[in-house]
């Protein structure tokens, strides 16, 4: 009896293992999924995750480009607007002259987590610099990861994987590479197949460790340019009626419009999607095929998590690093401060949540993910994080959100539940009413000076 009592006491004294974190980052993913209201898209695995979690219908990123957006995700702070934002941070760490706050993975590591990244989590897949992004002396996020992995398969190196097409094709120059492609084969003829295989392997390894919780970040590259996916995914969109492109005209007046140089730099067979409707629709179908291909990779990861039983104690976050214009405002790409560049999917699931399969219309931003994950795992939220925990919204999806901020080197923007205001460095202002049918096509700044001043004050307070 005494031994039995002692055994029971010991069992009671053992602290419960903190929940694991699985963070899935998807590049260039528009909120154009079945679970976000677009029924022509085939995204069953992401939709299944949304059915188990909360889908944030008004999540906005803090920068319309991979590098600075991922900086905000991984540090919980606003940063430089360039793609080298994390490398600039790393340089300061290595110089050692000023104190640099811990990144999200480093913070979790400090709190007892095993931290692993696979694929494109920071700007460079695998998190290294150098000519081919594989120089282990040039680390994008020092002190962050116990392992930062990037399988390259037949694409030779991480730089080759980033813009790789089927069967090891590597981009040498944009103009020599097709902007889209469809090839017969299985998922591993494109780079994300290898990333997903490694991610599945890491889940198996991490779940075999019964002592430490894990923080596993997985970065899927597609649907990033060039749009390449196995033919089976493209076939799903043959003959599908695509929705009409909203406001396809180039905007009048001063805006953050640009000429889509990234997209236009690829081989387009002399075609322009702004003037060729057939070509535009083919581009959109290839983008959709890439989304379905990325969705399949998400499915493999979530299946492995469930197979191991770790899903019962794992918080899952699916995050799109920014949006992508498919012809809106005559833009094909990101990099603007229009809605299409900044609006991206966010889904959060945690094991004990009660509002599964719920949508929330609360306006939130990428900066909120770091404090939210701290809140959900029960570790301290660092005072230096600049976002807000979303736990209250997860508990009650009708809870109000807060304004979302984003920036480029030339302008900054604030999105509220009703308006978007964009402030250019030279002082010019764009103001759009999201309660009106014309949305971000009619600049109403001159007619609303009081609202402009109010939003300017919030924007400047946040960014300074």
Automatic annotation (TrEMBL):
Cofactor(s) essential for the protein: Ca(2+)
Signal peptide coordinates: none
Domain of life: Bacteria
Isomerase among keywords: no
GO molecular function per UniProt: iduronate-2-sulfatase activity; metal ion binding
Keywords, alphabetical: Calcium, Hydrolase, Metal-binding, Signal
Family matches, as PROSITE patterns: SULFATASE_1
Keyword tRNA-binding: no
Start and end residues of each Sulfatase N-terminal domain: 19-379
Cellular component per GO, a single term: cytoplasm
A Pfam family annotated for this UniProt entry: Sulfatase
Family: Belongs to the sulfatase family.
The protein's name in its UniProt record: Sulfatase
Naturally occurring in which organism (per UniProt): Seonamhaeicola sediminis
